[in-house]
Amino acid sequence: MSSYRITGETGEWEIVVGMEVHAQVVSQSKLFSGAATEYGGEPNTQVSLVDAGFPGMLPVLNKECVAQAIRTGLGLRAQVNKYSRFDRKNYFYADLPTGYQISQFEHPIIGEGKVEIELSEGEKRIIGVTRLHLEQDAGKSIHDQDPTRSFIDLNRAGVALMEIVSEPDIRSPEEAGAYLRKLRQILRYLGTCDGNMEEGSMRADVNVSVRPVGEEGYRTRCEIKNLNSVRYVMQAIEVEAERQITIWEEGGTVDQETRLFDHVKGETRTMRSKDDAHDYRYFPDPDLLPLELEQSWIDELKAALPELPEDKRARLEKDYGVSQYESGVLTAEQSVADFYEEVARGADARLATNWMLGDFFAALNRTGRSIEDSPVSAQGLRELLGLISDSTINGKIAKEVLEDMVETGDSASAIVDRKGLRQVTDSSAIEATVQGILDANADKVAEYKSGKDKLFGFFVGQTMKAMKGKANPAMVNDVLKKLLSA
Amino acid sequence: MSLDAKKVARIARLARIGLSDDEVQTYQKDMEGIIGWVEQLNEVDITDVPPMVGTGLATARLRDDIVTDGERRDDVLSNAPEREGLFFTVPKVVE
């Protein structure tokens, strides 16, 4: 059990946090209309008359969006409800042309599930998922184009969202961050949401309350809306908890309300404009029949589910002998795991792991590239590692070759040939060089023999330098030992 | 269930309908009539009857996920009380 505590004037406090994550569903067309969902289109071109709320237009449910919700439910090890229903959530807002959002209130498509999170010291916790339901996204308001008017683009209106509601199980900003990251990882693996928080395809509302350590039950919570990064979620929880503790300690009471997080000022503040909006007057949408799912379809989707992060981790540990830490890094993104397996399958797995996490990641960082547009292919990296394994080159030279590969795009063996980097394994050539070094440094040899063992490294270095790094290191060691003890 | 004037005014406000005091009284009476009628329906015992949504005979029809609509900005904007270029415009919404 993690123990995040805030020390107030009157004692120790703990925080209680639940999250509502809105994840945009990956689909070609919208939840209830045939308009495109693609991001970044010309304003108001990806809008059907259904999305624009024209009278008489009827919604028709998108099968793929339902499938995506089911896949996500299965990935969250949650219950899939064979009966679910759509309701109208009524409120007025400029970017909501119909005056209501079609959502699922009483009967969501997915019930209870769980997400396992991992904290900094490898500690694991389960965060409960209460439910997941399908709903429509709203349009976009643009406020900075005109002093007196807001501009409305409805391209996003009607795009399918999954709202994933957690239990109030989260007890620290770190856990909140870990939960959101884990959720994003699962959704990406499943291909049900791209998890791109900058583009707004994943956003979080956070419910925060505080209580003195040891107190049972929950105190009044506040909801902080629309956080679009893991960092903001963590910061918002921290400052909101501080605010509430100050109120309680000064003898006041926290009002249940919706607040906004201002990351520039580092504070939360009341969102007054929607005071009235909490009375949503939900009722079943008369335009839509209940959604009933066949078990055979659920089974079909389950059978085709991709390997989930935790399963992949366990498998990499078993198949390639990677450590728990390494498997965590390698499976953070599916694309990284795929790349790794492509490399490791035909190479020495330990070598593949070390190179992937070391020099290869460093090269990506240095060039600012992602694994998707990596300057070196998995096959290319595997070829390089093969050259190490069969003693064509040594590890040090391999680093140089990798740099060259990143720069020129040439294959490892082409570079080795072009630069003449083939490892020298001819013992007489190595012996001759070593002898030359020892002769040129007679004083150091004497010092070594009188007990200055550290000089061994100096002789290795000099030999490697003389042989342009191409000597087989193990052979250099052997030859040096032999000649120095002579 | 009785419906006071305050509740009528609130319902009107949620629906963005402006009512004068006289109108509040009129609608209060009308709506109480409706509620009274519904309360009469409540006398029927429906313990074992599941709530009916739609006809109960059919379930949702699903459509394939293909783009079949859009690229009709002129239609979409045609009824807008106000527009500017490619956008609908509304009085500024301040957060």
- Rg calc of chain A: 30 Å
User: Which range does the strand content of chain A fall in?
Assistant: 15-25%
Count of individual helical segments of chain A:
15
CATH architecture of the domain at 5-41 in chain B: Orthogonal Bundle
Number of helices of chain B: 3
CA-to-CA gap between the ends of chain A? 62 Å
Helix content of chain B: 25-40%
**SSE order of chain B, as H and E?**
HHEHEE
Major sheet strand order of chain B:
2-3
Count of extended strands of chain B: 3
The helix content of chain A, as a percent range, equals 25-40%
Output the structural class of chain A.
Answer: alpha+beta
Q: What is the gyration radius of chain B calculated from CA atoms?
A: 22 Å
Query: Describe the biggest sheet of chain B?
Result: 2 strands, antiparallel
Number of self-contained structural domains of chain A? 3
How would you state the average pLDDT of chain A, rounded?
92
Please state the structural category of chain B: alpha+beta
What's the quaternary structure here? heterodimer
For the report, how would you describe the main beta sheet of chain A?
Answer: 9 strands, mixed
Molecular shape of chain B: flat
Topology readout:
The complex is a heterodimer of chains A (486) and B (95).
Chain A: E1 6-7, E2 12-24, E3 61-62, H1 63-75, E4 83-84, E5 87-90, E6 100-103, E7 113-118, E8 124-136, E9 140-142, E10 149-153, E11 160-166, H2 173-190, E12 202-212, E13 222-227, H3 230-249, E14 258-262, E15 267-270, E16 283-284, E17 291-292, H4 295-303, H5 309-320, H6 324-331, H7 334-345, H8 349-367, H9 378-389, H10 395-408, H11 412-419, H12 427-440, H13 442-449, H14 455-466, H15 473-484
Parallel strand pairs in A: 13-14
Antiparallel strand pairs in A: 1-2, 2-11, 2-12, 4-17, 5-6, 5-16, 7-8, 8-11, 9-10, 12-13, 14-15
Helix pairs in contact in A: 2-3, 5-6, 5-7, 7-8, 7-9, 9-10, 12-14, 12-15, 14-15
Chain B: H1 5-14, H2 21-41, E1 62-63, H3 73-77, E2 83-84, E3 87-91
Antiparallel strand pairs in B: 2-3
